Amino acid sequence: FLLDESDTVGLPIKFIPPDTGSYHCQILLKSPCDVRVYEIECVVSKDQVDAELEFLTPAYQSVIQNIPISNTSSVDWKLEAKLEGEGFYGPPVINVGVGETALYPLTFNPAAEN
Hints:
This is CFA47 protein. With 114 residues, the chain is an all-beta fold.
C-alpha cells in the first residue's frame, strides 16, 4: 500500500553541535503494538571560509608558506588541493590524521617578465 501525507507524522529534532565532527544518536519510538529504532549520524563541518595570504619576497625569488591544517574531527582527512594562478605550486593531496595538524607547503615561484 502507499502512504500519503495523512499517514505521516513530523518529528522535529533540534541539534546544536558544539564543534565539527561526527555525531551519532538513536531515536526509540514505542507504541502498544510497535517499536522502532532510528539510527542517525550527523556530520558537521565548518562553513567554507575564504582566506587570504600575503607573500612578501624579493623580486623573482621563490617563497614557501607552510599553511597549518588542523583536523579536530573524529575521522582522518584526505584533502585535495586545487591551485589557481601562475607561479603557485604545492602537493595535490595532503593527509591529516585525527587530532593532528599538518603543514601544507604552498610555494610561489614568480616568473621573470619578458
